[in-house]
Amino acid sequence: MTAFDLLIRGGTVIDGTGAPRRLADVGVLGDRILAIGDLSRVDGEGAARVLDAAGLVVTPGFIDPHGHSDGSLFVDGLLTSHVLQGFTT
Prior knowledge:
Elements (H helix, E strand, L loop, with lengths): L3 E10 L8 E8 L2 E6 L9 E6 L4 E2 L11 H6 L4 H5 L5
Parallel strand pairs: 1-4, 1-5
Antiparallel strand pairs: 1-2, 2-3
């Protein structure tokens, strides 16, 4: 059994709380983030999938409080352009 479904290694984490950005690993199981920090003790076998995020930023999904997606819905009902930008709501 794996400790995580997904292990994101070595990204710059910006968590949205206002805390300074930091280098960290993120461990996800199901739909929950279980751990953020130094997860180097978890080897590749401890996760179903491992992503190398070195040089990348890891953040929670963004909420778009004002958008003009109504027209895009007719072209792309999945709003792929928003998802690729990190918008989850």
